[in-house]
Amino acid sequence: MKMLKPMALVLALSAIAAQTQAQPAVYRGGTLTIPAGVLVSETRKQYYADIVLETDSSGNLELVSANPLPKVMVNTVDAMVSEDIGKTTVVLSVAGNKSVPCTILQNAAVVREDAHFSVILAESVLGPAESCIAVLDPFTLDIPLDVSGLSAGTYTVDVNGMEVSFDLSVDAP
Fold first, then answer.
1. CA 91/CA 110 separation, integer angstroms
2. CB atoms within 10 A of CB 158
3. CB 145 within 8 A of CB 60
4. Does one domain contain both 64 and 134?
5. Which residues form the domain of 154?
């Protein structure tokens, strides 16, 4: 059993919910169930589904279970920057492959720390009774990055190990 630090819990709760209309986390009877979340650390970036935390006798949340989801293969990442008066947008164009056509591409999890964005893309897993033709399933995806309030400068983005950088020539409002 692993005790979670508050920052790990915040990442698990907010990284995906902020950009999707996923099922909300539910706390009932001392158990917190989170449908999906990510762990981002210096050494690991992992997407999880069905996260279950329970309250221990001290009131701390303890990780009971979490199902890791496989990350998808990313072939290309391009960053498109648009700087108009009063509005700056950055959109990532990502192309890659799911492992098989029967899996579902999960919502992109985006976490920013200083001048570095981490984007984790994962796919669902097949159930034990499910089968699927074993061919790669290509996908393309546009992912908007929240750059509001960022200063002019160079930023890097890591999407499942594929890195790209972009420049903001002006401060983003």
1. 12
2. 16
3. no
4. no
5. 73-168
